[in-house]
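Our consortium's second objective concerns turning raw sequence data into structural hypotheses that experimental partners can test. To show how far this objective has progressed, the report includes one record in full. It was chosen at random from the queue rather than selected for favorable results. The single chain below, 254 residues long, was entered without modification.
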Amino acid sequence: MILVLGGTLDSRQLTEALLAEGKEVCYSSLTNIATDRIPEHPRLTKISGLLDGITLRETMTIYKVDLCIDATHPYAREISENAIWACDAMSVEYIRLERPSHIDMSADSLFYDTYEGARDYLIGAMGKSDQNVLLTTGSRQLEAFEGLAKERTYIRVLPTSGVMKKCENLGYKPSHILGVQGPFSIEMNYVMMMEYNIGFVVTKDSGDVGGVSEKVAAVQKAGAKILFIRRPVVAYPKVVSTVEDAVALATKTD
């Protein structure tokens, strides 16, 4: 059994490719949003929920996992580190499917190792500009942006009830919560920026699969500035960058 740690587009593509090769796959995601997007299959088991190191080991035992392919989001450092530990403890092979980085090195791009660093820049920049901020880094990091003027900050998040409630609890008005699910085209990003007078966009380096190219192009079209949060550093023992490479390695383990 192959355990695919997912929640991403590339993880779903990987799962479908493995099934097409006749593999038994257990697909895991934090929420049902991702698992529900994969069609049912007789060789597919779908599970959802938070997996720490202990529950990962239990999952590997229950499903007799002999290969774990970590295709989680590039910023899901905790689950990746837990998976590396669990695989080592259980003598299960671990492969990281890491989508290529997409960092735009133009003069209009800024780079930060922490969300707080980006926030501190924005606090100063907003005092010198009448344009607003668009946060596209998700709901889990919103607390790091406390201190930004909420009447000038827009947040683009998944439209789930839990996420919307968290945003409101943090003091964001519904008119500043853009609950939408991607992918977003260049034009969609651009129209959103024009509609809300956006001059600063904060994003993760999620790669082309994560829609970064379209976001960068829209920012450049709008004459705005983009702030990248760099990826966390994880000591992956084995890394591939494409679904095809991951499937090839999975086939070799037979």
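The partners drew two points from this record. The mean pLDDT is 92. Residues 109-229 form a domain with the Rossmann fold fold (CATH 3.40.50.620). Both points have been shared with the crystallography group to help prioritize constructs.
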